[in-house]
Amino acid sequence: MRPEVRAVLVCDGERLVGVITRKTLVREVVARGRDPRTTALAEIVEPPNATLDPAMPLVVAYAFLERHDLERVPVVESGRLVGVLSRSVVQRRLAEDEPGDAVE
C-alpha cells in the first residue's frame, strides 16, 4: 500500500464488502507471517466503521464525520457503493457556500 493510501474499499461487483487498512495489513498479514502475494482480500477484509446514506443532508453527514473523527466514509445505497464522502472536501464546500462579509 502506498503511503498516501490509508484504506482500500473492497467490493463484490458494486456491493461494498468491507475495507482494508494499513492496520489490517499489519495485524492480519505481517504479524501472522502470511504471504501478501497469496493472501486473498476476502480473508482479511473488515466491515467499515461506518457508512452513510446518499439521502443524508450534507451538513448532517459532515457533523457525523466530525463527531466520530472520520476522514472518509463510504456512501452506500442498498448495499451498493455509490461514493466516498471526504471530510476535507465537505469542509471546503461548506466554506465556499458561506456568505462573505458584506461590503459597506
Characterize the structure shown.
- With 104 residues, the protein is α+β, with helices and mostly antiparallel strands.
- It is 33% helix and 25% strand.
- The protein contains four helices and four strands; from the N terminus they run ββαααββα.
- Strands 1-2 form a two-stranded antiparallel sheet. It has a two-stranded antiparallel sheet with strand order 3-4.
- The mean pLDDT is 89.
Offer a quick outline of the entry.
The chain has 104 residues and is of the alpha+beta class. 33% of the residues lie in helices and 25% in strands.
List keywords for this structure.
elongated; about 100 residues; two-stranded antiparallel ribbon; alpha+beta; 4 helices
Estimated helix fraction: 25-40%
Low-confidence stretches: none
**How many extended strands?**
4
String of helices and strands: EEHHHEEH
Rg over C-alpha atoms, rounded to the nearest angstrom: 17 Å
* Largest sheet descriptor: 2 strands, antiparallel
Kindly name the structural category.
alpha+beta
- How widely separated are the two ends? 53 Å
What is the strand arrangement across the widest sheet? Answer: 1-2
> Helical element count?
4
What percent of residues are in strands? 25-35%
What characteristic shape results from the CA principal axes? Answer: elongated
Q: On the 0-100 scale, what is the average pLDDT?
A: 89
